[in-house]
Design goal:
It is a single chain. The protein is an alpha+beta fold. Helix content is 19%, strand content 21%. The strands form three sheets. The chain has a five-stranded antiparallel β-sheet with strand order 7-4-6-5-9, with no helix packed on it. Strands 1-2 form a two-stranded antiparallel sheet.
Length: 144
Amino acid sequence: MTAAPGGGAVLSLDTLVRLGRASRVPARDPRLRLSLPDGMTAPLGCDAVAAPARLGPLIAPRLPRVGCVYADQSRWWWLVPSDSDYAMDWPAPAQYATGALVPEVTRLIHRPDGTVPYTPPIPLYLALCQAMGATPTWSRPITA
């Protein structure tokens, strides 16, 4: 936050996006937050991206680094840094979960070496697009 001429505060676009998201989260959210394994830290916050479980084994080998991956009955959940949905339209049927809040109990199926739980979001996005037969949004033709 910086000072504006005249003494008021100026908020960055990132701050406004976070504030807007915070105002939409209900007080009693029935979803569950994915927890980090012991010894791991999330300096950039955590969001999660889900893909159908059948695609998980196809996506993982395409990634330069696989972070924490959780699984429920039908999906694999990949931890990514907060705001990894900014300017990216994740392809359906992928799901993006702000705050790593998921609808079901999950179990950890992959823990990376080290202390950082993230899968890099852009390679994950590209691998998901490829596995789902989707075109990345920045590659789509623009129509008037």
